[in-house]
Design goal:
By secondary structure, this protein is an alpha+beta fold. The chain folds into 2 domains: about 210 residues, no CATH class; about 130 residues, Immunoglobulin-like (Sandwich), CATH 2.60.40. Helices cover about 30% and strands about 15% of the residues. The strands form 2 sheets. It has a 4-stranded antiparallel sheet with strand order 4-3-6-7, with helices on one face. Helix 2 runs antiparallel to helix 3, helix 3 crosses helix 4 and helix 4 packs antiparallel against helix 5. The longest helix has 22 residues. It starts with a helix and ends in a 14-residue tail after the last strand.
Length: about 350
Amino acid sequence: MKRRIACTLLVLAWSGCADPATSPPVAEEDNELIIGRAPVIPAPSVSEPKATDLSEDDPCITAAGKKAEAWKTAGVSPAEIETRFQAALARCAGATDAATARFIGALNVDLFRTSQLLIANSISPTKYLLAVQDRGGKARLAQKDSTWAAAYVKGDADGDFVPDARDRCPGTADLTPTDANGCPRRIPQRQRPIAPDPQSVRQILNSFNLVVDPRCKGTPVPPTPRPVKVGYGDMATNIAVTRVKNQPAGCLVLYEIDARFMNPGWESNFERHPEYPHFVLRSTEEVPGGSIPAGVIRFQVRGDDTRDFGNRAIFASLLGQYEEISWRVRAINGNGLRSTFSDWQHLSGSQTGSGSGPFTAP
């Protein structure tokens, strides 16, 4: 959520960089079309949309989160889950018909993706602002034309937010600004948004403490790693996950571990509460050797490790003391591009302590 809020602030900070005398007018609603909040685009039948400053404790948002978990259990793809979830948030904000909510949800997902590409140095600040400006224009088209969203949900093969049925220029390149007919727009230089220089971009990113590694420039989003094995090793606890392979040499990969320790065992203190250690392992911390195949990377954590606010030590110390353990992992590269979390791996009984046996990829 923090990274999404950061992307939100980037959009807000730069929306005013364009010269108002030479740039197309931008409605206030455009600034709300950002990840982290539901946008202010009322459905055609809604005259007064609800306030969009929704708390994460809002029952509507809580229900949307439960739906997302159900979709994941049903095998829905991560990309589709994200779009559905954002559409659900749009409904929470006041969009009363499914097509408009879906259109808003897809816009939010696309804008977040565009922000990720900017953070990863995969697109220039100018291209980023042009994309945000274009998506704002498409939002206004959908707001003015009650049939736009309904047509959009039937198909938009090139992802320019112009419905296929109205797209006279199919196959437009990704993030290319297009007109209402889906054809590339020629934007005069004087109407282009004035983008900040690269140094200013870095200063903004640094102020949010975002990870930015120049060795990761232009890299793709890491694939989702999978849990392989946890267990005791030589004076430490082993953690093995599938290796992320699509990043260039030198690009740091972070493996974020999320664990749940439930039901303390009979040798432990029965009054223990569940524990939820959460920590991050760097690819540079890999422990080589043994029979570990190329597709697996192994780490070790110890009971005296104070990093990650002591969460590594909690994980290492409690392994074997609880009857049930669940853990999952996701990858984040040095520019902040992240995968989705893997499915939970559930361990019980003797599985929760033994580190013997081969580390084989699933």
